[in-house]
Design goal:
Distance between the termini: 37 Å
Strand order of the largest sheet: 1-2
Organism: Cacopsylla melanoneura
Protein name: Reverse transcriptase domain-containing protein
Low-confidence stretches: 138-145, 160-169
Strand content: 5-15%
Largest sheet: 2 strands, antiparallel
Length: about 170
């Protein structure tokens, strides 16, 4: 894969032991899909689709039960974990991508409201729930947290190093 922000990539072929290496436009590494232009749009779309599929499975499976705690626990462990995994790397910063990801949690809240009350809310936007941005804490989607975190890891001044006993020296 050739990584570049150019619209028209220079076509070249690479050989190893006389065999041509096939060129690809996307590569999945550690569960994160990276495109040749360094954008994560495909990864975000796949993640949201997968989260909606799992959410649908949870709601169909738990349809006969009225245990709300089970719904919330399964949502947090199976759906939110998909949405949050490696989000420091692919964190969206445009409003449309943020709302696309937040729509999964909003759908869950609407469905849970309907399960509790027997009807969907008249104004679904007024259901009180914390957004994924609020759950991440002070780190807003446009913040520089990933940059300073990586910088601290590079300089060895991260508290994570102290937890595992890794020190420079």
């Amino acid at each position: 894969m050739i990584v570049s922000r150019r619209r028209h990539l220079v076509s070249s072929s690479y050989l190893i032991n006389g065999e041509t290496i096939k060129s690809v436009t996307t590569k999945k590494d550690l569960g994160v899909t990276l495109c040749h232009d360094l954008c994560f749009n495909l990864h975000m779309e796949n993640t949201v689709q997968s989260a909606f599929r799992v959410l649908g499975f949870i709601m169909r499976t738990l349809r006969p039960t009225h245990d709300i705690d089970s719904h919330i626990l399964l949502f947090q462990s199976l759906v939110l974990s998909k949405l949050i995994y490696a989000s420091v790397v692919w964190m969206p910063f445009t409003a449309d991508k943020i709302s696309q990801i937040e729509s999964v949690q909003a759908s869950f809240c609407r469905r849970l409201f309907a399960k509790l009350n027997g009807f969907y809310p008249a104004y679904p936007n007024q259901i009180a729930h914390t957004t994924l941005r609020e759950q991440r804490g002070n780190c807003s989607t446009g913040s520089q947290r990933p940059a300073w975190y990586v910088r601290r890891l590079q300089t060895g001044s991260s508290p994570d190093f102290e937890l595992i006993g890794a020190h420079e020296g």
